């Protein structure tokens, strides 16, 4: 596991990039770290997928002082390449490969988050202007993640569209609607020309970082580090078009375009004839211009949840405002709705050339993805898909058939149920409701059973631990699975409550392994640790997937007739099947099991 010293140098954090100036942890006791640092553990939670691939499980965290619990379900991303050797920074420092272009500078020299390194990065959710990837939970959360400020840009985090106000219609010198005033002159630039890689203002203020950080460049264009978009043939052509000179960066030209920058570069001049002067208008002038001189297209006022923005810099257009002729707009949805239709529209000859898409409401899939005890199939318009699959859209009217997953059985008479995605009058989003006259399905593990032919005890797991400064995990002790997310081990097996120091392997294994090496083990990393009076309860990031080879031991109370099989376990028989139980369990451990179970249930709703 990759580590670096915390502030002060006497303690070590697991993959935590700690700034000794701004994040001085002081005298850390028992790894009781601030919330901000616990949240940064997201990048260190990891698991193996196969040779040359590393699967990340990034999430936000809640820390209640005792349990470290994730706030959202895992977001997975694949990284291909040399996960074992790591990424080599310009100064020679080596960091994990997955730390490259992750919106945090892990290299001391910051080279893992440079424009040269990250400009071609493909992100699953959102992308910083320089190329690093960040998550939806990090967007507009008040904390700067992208070092260039992309995730907290005011134009991104403020309300996207507003109606024109009376004050804005008062007679004052101003730029025409949907235009930007140049900073040092009275010239105005139409929104569609901002961040297009051409400096229309004499002072270049239409191509600044503040305006262009959140721009989205179309395919077959080059994105400058500051956010402007150039035609691809302008990159590495010997002429500086991006004011930050990123289009002529030697490393980019040599490695990606196979061009060597000439000894002298020509810098593009500022100023074009596409600017217009400010005008003085009043309400009557506005009405007269709209009625008599309109040649563009007006944004309809009835576009529910639909956001209309510029093509390049995704600046918002106002509802009801007029868009200049021959302008392409970019469309997106808000409020957890899904765009159904094209994300672009063109104003030509005063008419919109395409139909406006719909923003369709949909139900959340969390009730299916966070509950390992069920399996589900969703049906919509004749199409059937696994409800946990992202390809299933879960629109209103979707019907979900739910049964118990393998390794589970129904508690009670209900063996299946149906849920329908509906929109309720006072609900902020669509919800899943049970079918009429149906009882709620409760699936419980088929615990304590060893199927004939299975040699190993299905609930036995191996707890491994690593040293403070190495990534080698060594066997510590055996434990027992007691639920999909929980394992019980003896208290003396736990030296520290630092979750990054431990890993769990299904089955009984004694051979040590290295964190970043290819391993035959299925590795589970820990989410929380609780030490009781006799035992310790550890919960895992991901659930155990139960089968005939992997299942939990049963918890007390034990049926009246039983035989003791060891000092801690006993068994009964039912219909010729042997069922094994734990003889006893502390009350505080039982209470923690209940809390973990409730927490996982809440995250799925």
TrEMBL record:
Alphabetical list of PROSITE patterns matching this protein: LDLRA_1, LDLRA_2, SUSHI
SMART domains, A to Z: LDLa
Cellular compartments annotated: Endomembrane system; Membrane
Domain of life where this protein originates: Eukaryota
Chief location of this protein within or outside the cell: membrane
Classification via InterPro entries: LDL_receptor-like_sf, LDLR, LDLR_class-A_CS, LDrepeatLR_classA_rpt, Peptidase_S1_PA, Peptidase_S1_PA_chymotrypsin, Sushi/SCR/CCP_sf, Sushi_SCR_CCP_dom
SUPFAM superfamilies in the cross-refs: Complement control module/SCR domain, LDL receptor-like module, Trypsin-like serine proteases
Domain Sushi: 295-361
Cellular-component GO terms for this entry: endomembrane system; plasma membrane
Keyword Repeat: yes
Coiled-coil region: none
Alphabetically ordered keywords of this record: Disulfide bond, Membrane, Repeat, Sushi, Transmembrane, Transmembrane helix
Topology relative to the membrane: Single-pass membrane protein
Pfam families to which the protein is assigned, alphabetical: Ldl_recept_a
A GO biological process held by the record: vesicle-mediated transport
Disulfide pairings: 89-107, 128-146, 217-229, 224-242
Protein name (record): GG14074
Organism: Drosophila erecta (Fruit fly)
